[in-house]
Amino acid sequence: MRTTTPSRTRLGLAGALAALLMGAGLATGPAAQAKEKPPTLAELAQRHGRYFGSATDNPELTDGAYTALLGSQFDMITPGNGMKWYATEPEQGVFDWTNGDEIVNLARKNHQRVRAHTLVWHSQLPNWLTSRDWTPDELRAVLKKHITTEVRHYRGKVYSWDVVNEAFNEDGTYRETIWYKTLGPGYIADALRWAHQADPHAKLYLNDYNIEGTGPKSDAYYRLAQDLEAQGVPLDGIGFQAHLALQYGYPSTLEDNLRRFSRLGLDTALTEVDVRMQLPATDEKLAQQATWYRDLTKACLAVRRCVGVTVWDYTDKYSWIPAVFPGEGAALPWDEQLRPKPAYFALREALGGK
Ligand code: XIL
Q1: Model pTM?
Q2: Is 89 a catalytic residue?
Q3: Which ligand 1 atom is the nearest neighbour of the CA of 162?
Q4: Which atom number of ligand 1 is nearest to the Cα of residue 209?
Q5: Is 166 considered catalytic here?
Q6: Architecture of domain 41-350
């Protein structure tokens, strides 16, 4: 499998030197005046050879205060919806890149990379696809065309693809999706091969939730990764969504789990981090949330091939949680007024900033 050298895109050599000197308390010409401006999460992560990312979504890009932080604190961007099937192929064979392109172009303008999300999933599929039956041959052709067309369109413009999203049930059996039911488990290897053909340089990931700690679902990925490797299927990494909730406890085996995937020669990443809580948020819950953000970041830094952390948007103003988990929220490091929460300061601390 391929190896990664995350590039230090935002700092450059001079910037890195200035940051180092500043970190050591030494003033460096014009940078001295900028001393009160603390390094961003991205800059702190880059000191460890990692990225720090955020998801975003098209409707919120008209919010100037929001885009200012999005463009400065992060060096990796994930489109929250814009690259999903319903958005990109709303009618069979008719492709729409409007939303995905808007985010890729914004990221490029801000010198950020893109984790592209997602090609094969059971959710947010267009009606034309879910409202009829397909023969295996028909569905295979539909899937191949979708993957090939979308990955080609973004070829050279994205760092990675979440090729298959959420393929397993909690007990480690395959999720009975349209893909699994019609094509059998081989759809995963096929999808990876087609994606690799369409963009040989993009890092290809499998991505899921509730696999942060060891357990049957995470074990299913471990076995699948071994199988795929044995078959020579192009797989670069496993994405751990990390949609955590205070009431379910912290996944204390996270670091060990990341490490066992590293030992298979795979990259790992925390791809959709949020830490939700039952509302109302209290100082105590926010403090606990901060500890979790610190610990999950430290877990990634402790594992060589954990390449970065992405939050599933950065402000409670645009979090998906309240709409999907009624009564829960306050899951992100910035509050609804875009003010940093204890979790933000905990992230900085975990990344070695002050
Ligand atoms: C979510 C988006 O954030 C929402 O806007 C949308 O309504 C539903 O999907 N796991 C994933 C993401 O892989 O694609 C989901 O994103 C959150 C859960």
Answers
A1: 0.91
A2: no
A3: 13
A4: 10
A5: yes
A6: Alpha-Beta Barrel (3.20)
